[in-house]
Amino acid sequence: MLQNSKAFSSYSVDDIKKAKDFYQNLLGLDVKEDPMGYMEIHFSSGNTILLYPKPDHAPASFTVLNFPVADIDKTVDALTEKGLVFLQYEHPIKTDRKGISRDNEGPKIAWFKDPAGNILSILEI
């Protein structure tokens, strides 16, 4: 019934202006502010993510957005140079000094947070 729907994802942030600066300027994404106070992130694939302001925002405790990349080390290095800090984990997932999990059973992946505390990741495809 819904398989032909152009579904999209959304999640909340506590400050749209900070989110816009982060997603547009640090991550280099195509961001548009909606007159209703929402923010849309547009991808070349045609996908759109909607971010909305929520005064009592609580950050998600799980990954809300994943960015597949061809070379995770190159991407982590470039984002680190721009000031992004990658999360460090010891258990149950271990990350290296760069913040990359290199578990042989899964993809190479690194997590970081947006200004609202939502968890995002890049993973090598």
UniProtKB/TrEMBL annotation:
Coiled-coil residues: none
InterPro entries: Glyas_Bleomycin-R_OHBP_Dase (IPR029068), Glyas_Fos-R_dOase_dom (IPR004360), VOC_core (IPR037523)
Pfam families documented for this protein: Glyoxalase (PF00903)
Domain VOC: 5-125
Protein name per UniProt: VOC family protein
Lineage of the species this protein comes from: Bacteria, Pseudomonadati, Bacteroidota, Flavobacteriia, Flavobacteriales
